[in-house]
Structures are given as structure tokens and as C-alpha cells.
Amino acid sequence: MQRLRIIGPISAIMFSALFPLRVNGQTTWHIDDICTSPGSGSSADPFCKIQDGINAAIAGDTVLVHDGTYTGLGNRDMSFHGKAITVRSENGAATTIID
Fold first, then answer.
1. Phi/psi of residue 14, each to 5°?
2. Which of 11, 61, 87, 91 is the most buried (most CB within 10 A)?
3. What is the pTM for the complete model shown?
């Protein structure tokens, strides 16, 4: 029995290290028109397309679109898939253009 008590907490720690839990509403997905494809959505490695950020987001997340001009597939006719997320420009409409 003593062995099971030790293995349980160790297993939980190993599981949480391998599969980090995500709290709703605390993830910001970054989009930049100047990026390396496909990107991971982090601030250091942003997605190239707005739709990629929308696809990665879950309820409560924010998709932050950096300054630039966004054209082409993945940047127009976007679908939010019914998700309760926020998509916003980093510095407003004057510096972020969806063409």
C-alpha cells in the first residue's frame, strides 16, 4: 500500500508536466503578417493567418492581430465556429488592415 501512495503523486506530477493545463480566457494568440510559417501563435512565433489564431482559440481567449496588412486565404471570410473569443487589433484599425 505504501508504494501506491508514492506512485500516485509522482504520476500526477509527471502527467501535469507533459500535458500542461490551460485556463480559459488566459491565452492570447498572436498574429503577424511578417512571420515564419506556420507559427505557433506565441508572441515570439506568431501565426501568419488570422484564421489560424481563431482555430487555436477556445472560449475566453484573445486573438491579437499585430499591425500590418492581412490578405489572402486565412485572412478573409473567416469563421469563428461559434466560439466566444475576442479578435482585436494590437493598435487599432488605422494600423491593422484586412484587405
1. -65, -40
2. 61
3. 0.73
